[in-house]
Amino acid sequence: MKRLLLPLLILIQACASTSEPIFICDYGAVSGERCTSAIQAALDACSSQGGGRVIVPAGTFLSSTLYLRDKVELYLEEGAVLQGVEDPDAYQPYIPHNDLTRYDSGNGTANSNCVNDRQWMKAFIIGDGVTDAAICGPGTIDGSHVFDERGEENMRGPHTIIVAEASGFHMKDVHITRASNYAFLGYALQEPVFEGVTITEGWDGIHIRGAQDAVIKGCSFQTGDDSIAGGYWENMLIEYCEINSSCNGIRIIMPCDRVIIRNSRFYGPGVYPHRTSGEARRNNMLFGVSLEPGAWGKASGTMQHILLQNLSMENLSSPVATSVREGSVAQDLTLQNVSASGLTGALTPVVSWNDLGFRSVSIQNCTFTR
């Protein structure tokens, strides 16, 4: 197993700014009202002074699409709620600057995720190619479960946050709830860090397609779909997380290189039901970690150097599943000190959906029981 090189581990710091903070209420934001223009004006003003902190105070502030800025930290104080408006037409899409089509998946299905689909790329908060932008604080971002019959599965609305083609994005402590699609969707990210983030309800929690040197640390998930998902990761560390889902805990659908998942707890059943299970509203948790390169569309490349270490799993189907599709290769999967109880599916350490599995698997000190 190659050593995971993550220099950010020694550089992670709480969100902070040395310049004078800017308050959204000074730009006309009023609790209980729609404040898109006021909040955006505060973000832009902060950017014009070279960056800093924009503060959302206690209260509920309604908004449509907001754009993050370079070196600007959007800080939500205790009791602050930034809430998306109910109108799906009020949101704008992220429009890629470069060709991101390698990250498309599910083409031709109800789960088609295409970067050139303006409906799919809509979001409440957008980080468009930003550098060192941040969202921090103990407050809440509420996506409000906006329904849109033109969206994925004829029901999903805008993502809560899209950050794409960006570097140094940092999210700390904030609570994201009721996402209308994914709570966070990232594309082509350099050194993103998520610390102490809590995500409840909605569909996927943190879903990243394309990342280098990424950290997800000390986060808590209670999601209606996969808690963490994506692929094309290089140097990804996921640790000290609490993961609860009505689908999969962690689902990697594209090749990746050097992923460590350690010191975390996976537990079912899902606190919030699967968002697209219809009237059944199922909440059973499927797999702790599902490794599926190419399962949602051809994804050429190799999934390798995957370490699952010091994990506990409770009340789900099976600990680990693989589904390697034509065009993808998988090798070097290591399980160390993984314990799972209350399993409803296979007791084997790794369940494979097809004949293409990992070329090399090492299992050390693992225990699995009903």
Keywords:
29-stranded mixed β-sheet, 370 residues, disordered N terminus, mainly beta, Pectate Lyase C-like
Helix content: under 10%
Roughly what is the average pLDDT, rounded to an integer?
92
Shape: globular
Number of separate structural domains? 1
Q: Enumerate how many helices there are, as a single number.
A: 1
Strand content: 35-45%
Please tell me about this protein's structure:
This protein is mainly beta and 370 residues long. It has one domain (108-368): 3 Solenoid (Pectate Lyase C-like). The protein is built from 1 helix and 29 strands. It has a 29-stranded mixed beta sheet that branches. It is globular. The two termini are 31 Å apart.
